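Protein modeling request. Please complete all fields; requests missing the sequence field cannot be processed.
Requester role: graduate student
Desired output: 3D structure, token encoding
Chains: 1
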Amino acid sequence: MWPFRISPEFSSVPTARDKKDPLSEGLRRQEKDVLPKEGEKIGGEAAGRERTRFPETRAPNFPLPVAPKKGQSHLSLKGEALLFCLVSGVALVIGVVRHEVVLTLLGIGGLAGFFYGVVSLFWVSWGMPAELNALHWRILPEETDEAHPPQWVLTWTDEKKIKKVGFPGITKRYHLVLASRDGRSIEVYASLPREKEETRDLPFPTRPRGAYEIKKEELVIYDFLGFWELAFPKRKGESAPALLVRPLAREVAFSPPFVVGGIRRRESKTVQKTEDLTDHRPYVPGDDPRRINWKLYGHSRELFVRKEETEPPPQSEYVLLLDTYADPSLYSTEAMWSRTDRLVYAALGLGRELLEHRGSLLMGYSGGALQMVQKNELSYYLAFPYGQREGQDLPVPPPDKGVFLFALPRRSVEATALTALLTRCQSPVQLIFVCGSPAEETLARDCQQYYAPHQRMAHVSFLTF
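Delivered output (465 residues):
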């Protein structure tokens, strides 16, 4: 049996066995072993493999890995090939019957080239699985920003697989597709390296921000006429992002009124700065007797009291949420990407401003969990939000916090995650509609009439850029 099957399309079609495997009892038992128990933190062995760049606590929105499916190679034939074969056969028959040398040669050459491509693919296919296993790649760096495209490094683990000269008439390409959850993709067709390691530039899409997972990874071979394509997919049973593109800070002219949130006082204290090198002073009538250091009294028979210690100023607590729902009736796929990026840029600017005012910041987005974020982690965390056609639930912030909520205008305002959040939230919310045009701002003002009377709504503002 040949190590491939013929399918009418380039993409592989799951067999009945593939469809049955995820529902088998064996996999069900594996999932019970992999999934954490209630209250258990996801990470380490429970998350499949150790993640250094993308820990589960930093990217809670990505699911746990499942058992990998066995990749099955597939052969595809273009429709033009059948027409070419038919024309070559007719030319051969006519040339033989009418003793036309030119038609006879054209027919023989066309059929010979057609069948040579088939036989060549069959011959070369035997070594493809071994070459695929010996070829590895990595992206450097795994975390970058929108202005610095990364590089793609292909490496042979077995130098015996390196071929300086390819098989005549056969072309080999490594096909890699990285995709984010909102449909952005990075696709690369690269020739196999002729050295142990080669570095290629990884092309960036127009709007590259996001967390990219491996969607397709395969080794493809073609015949010299381009009629036959044989692909050997390499599937991985993990869902950790292979590339993270962080947003760059943008100048956004926006100064929202600060919502008064909870005030938290730190328990740690610092000693007051003074020229005196001791932290005690003689007792003065009127001092609190509880501050007398009786150990010093036992040694010196004199009363000393501890000097007062200062406490850091109170720290405001804020929550910054991103509702990434994009109304399908308003936004195309390209517009959804653009508007989601605008939400991220606005949140990045406001988040930095909040942290500069000695505040602590919790961040969350549709379908994600709340995370405590530091100033140097803002751009990292904001690479994960993605545009959604069916909005997932927003994380409910703790009570008594100042909540800033960024959202896009929409036509339907009732049965949405935003409405559900306002019903459950126990903190004052400032809603900020991010608009890309005056028409969207007009629609946002219509939404304001619905959300403004809500008891938890502190203020509704608009940001157009």
